[in-house]
Protein backbone atom coordinates (compact mmCIF):
# COMPACT_ATOMS: atom_id res chain seq x y z
CA UNK A 1 0.00 0.00 0.00
CA UNK A 2 1.55 3.28 -1.14
CA UNK A 3 0.62 6.59 0.48
CA UNK A 4 0.48 9.58 -1.84
CA UNK A 5 -0.20 13.25 -1.27
CA UNK A 6 -2.40 13.70 -4.33
CA UNK A 7 -6.13 13.48 -4.85
CA UNK A 8 -8.16 13.18 -8.03
CA UNK A 9 -11.06 15.59 -8.36
CA UNK A 10 -14.30 14.87 -10.23
CA UNK A 11 -12.97 16.53 -13.37
CA UNK A 12 -10.13 14.01 -13.44
CA UNK A 13 -7.34 16.47 -12.65
CA UNK A 14 -4.74 15.69 -10.02
CA UNK A 15 -4.47 18.16 -7.15
CA UNK A 16 -1.51 18.12 -4.79
CA UNK A 17 -2.36 18.12 -1.08
CA UNK A 18 0.29 18.79 1.56
CA UNK A 19 0.69 16.05 4.15
CA UNK A 20 -1.12 16.69 7.45
CA UNK A 21 2.16 16.53 9.36
CA UNK A 22 3.30 19.69 7.56
CA UNK A 23 0.44 21.68 9.05
CA UNK A 24 1.25 20.37 12.52
CA UNK A 25 4.92 21.21 12.07
CA UNK A 26 4.14 24.77 10.96
CA UNK A 27 1.77 25.21 13.91
CA UNK A 28 4.44 23.96 16.31
CA UNK A 29 7.03 26.25 14.71
CA UNK A 30 4.73 29.27 15.07
CA UNK A 31 4.06 28.39 18.72
CA UNK A 32 7.80 28.14 19.33
CA UNK A 33 8.46 31.59 17.84
CA UNK A 34 5.58 33.15 19.79
CA UNK A 35 6.82 31.53 23.02
CA UNK A 36 10.37 32.76 22.43
CA UNK A 37 9.09 36.28 21.76
CA UNK A 38 6.97 36.32 24.93
CA UNK A 39 9.83 35.04 27.09
CA UNK A 40 12.30 37.47 25.52
CA UNK A 41 9.93 40.37 26.01
CA UNK A 42 9.38 39.41 29.67
CA UNK A 43 13.08 39.00 30.43
CA UNK A 44 14.18 42.24 28.79
CA UNK A 45 17.38 43.16 26.99
CA UNK A 46 20.44 40.95 27.31
CA UNK A 47 22.76 43.91 27.92
CA UNK A 48 20.91 46.71 29.74
CA UNK A 49 22.13 50.12 28.67
CA UNK A 50 23.08 48.98 25.17
CA UNK A 51 20.96 50.76 22.59
CA UNK A 52 20.83 50.85 18.84
CA UNK A 53 22.77 53.68 17.15
CA UNK A 54 20.87 56.94 17.16
CA UNK A 55 18.49 56.04 19.98
CA UNK A 56 18.46 57.67 23.35
CA UNK A 57 18.16 55.73 26.55
CA UNK A 58 18.01 56.44 30.23
CA UNK A 59 21.78 56.97 30.58
CA UNK A 60 23.07 60.32 31.90
CA UNK A 61 24.02 62.82 29.20
CA UNK A 62 27.77 62.40 29.90
CA UNK A 63 27.55 58.69 29.09
CA UNK A 64 25.47 59.13 25.93
CA UNK A 65 28.25 60.91 24.07
CA UNK A 66 31.05 58.63 25.31
CA UNK A 67 32.38 56.16 22.73
CA UNK A 68 31.99 52.49 23.57
CA UNK A 69 35.20 50.47 23.40
CA UNK A 70 34.84 46.73 23.52
CA UNK A 71 37.51 44.07 23.79
CA UNK A 72 41.33 44.04 23.81
CA UNK A 73 41.45 46.23 26.96
CA UNK A 74 41.84 49.57 25.19
TrEMBL record:
- What sections of the protein cross the membrane? 20-40
The annotated region (Disordered) lies at 47-74
Alphabetized, the UniProt keywords read:
Membrane, Transmembrane, Transmembrane helix
UniProt superkingdom? Bacteria
Name of the protein in its database record: Secreted protein
What species is this protein from?
Answer: Streptomyces diastaticus subsp. diastaticus
